[in-house]
Amino acid sequence: MQQNEQWSSKIGFILASAGSAIGLGAIWKLPYVTGNSGGGAFILLFLIFSVLIGFPLLLGEFVIGRSTGKEAISAYKKIAPGTKWHWIGYLGVFTSFILLSFYSVIGGWIIHYLFATVTGGMDQEAGGYKVFFENSVANPTIAVVSQGIFLLITVVIVARGVQKGIEQMSKIMMPALFLIFLILIVRSLSLDGAMDGVRFFLKPDFSSLNSESLLYAMGQSFFSLSVGISVMVTYSSYLSKKESLLQPAISVVLMNLFISILAGLAIFPAVFSLGFEPTDGPGLLFIVLPSVFEQMVFGKVFLFLFLSLFLFATLTSAFSMLEIVVAALTKGKGRNKMTWLMGIAIFAVGIPSALSYSLLSDISIFGRTIFDSADFLVSNILLPFGALLISIFVSFKMKKDLLKSELIQGSKGLHFVFTIWYFLMRFIVPIVIIVVFLDSLNLI
Q: Keyword Membrane, does the record have it (predicted)?
């Protein structure tokens, strides 16, 4: 029996799923790594692995959710009753909870920067943007309050439900995200010397590829698509049985790749044109880019647009993280109350991460700050482990006939697609995930 919650349309489902996948990783991290890992050569690798690894996993989660019409935990229980496989759902809920607790900290930084851009707060800081960023994250009040505001926005939207909340906002934010990108790209490419940045980002340089580039491309292929934590199981459970699963999956993968390329074209031409060096981590978003926009005509306007874009991307991902937690705990009942309770709980758990650069900066876990430790736990352990379990569950526990009927539902002539997908899920995806997982732990 299908849940009461439903997407009103296929495009709503696609935009919400793409919004979940397109977060800081796609817009912020991937462009930088691309530029330093062979440019267009790395993009090619990422595309290949997205098709061979990320896409099959995404379809696998779609099949689990849509076939059962249940949220993450109940979906596994329905397919494999009386077994322990439903712990994959619990793992996904736990991972999403922890992920949102520190992800909201970055969202808070963006909100603080937006406020400072509007009020002129950054202009008053002696020492420039680097000092402004360091002072901001080191201020416990700013860090915690900004994180709370970000989670408040997330809770208000998710509490409204799938159609009136997540879908409605995704239909606004995702087109707005594309529009802002296009405005920024046009401005960035119009600068003198912009082509140096384009070459840095897209020119294929196979000599720059190494084993690390290969492994990152493999890992990014499923990390950047929100697979491995059963978010897409929950989202697809709201999809009508009449709709095809293949088209939405292809759309999400293509949109994610397209957004990553747009991000690079918006960032690097401007960075190179104005004589800055691209940097990794928070520096690119919070230090270098404000300095870049400052030198442009109407720079504050473009900085505001860019930060708005990042906020939209961060929020649409946050919606999905909170939704999987709420859906698992409510089973469709008492959504509003549970959303607020979980929002408060996530906020409380995230406070130590928010204070990692101020009051709790002296606390170290295996040589990492609390924020970095939470990030490592999710990115290097929980996500790949969850993806591995899902690939095994789909290809070895679910009945082949059920998989086939769900995959070709709403489409015609896709039997050969199912054969290829089933082979990838059973023999290729698990092996690749194990390699990435062991490498992330420095075991190979």
A: yes
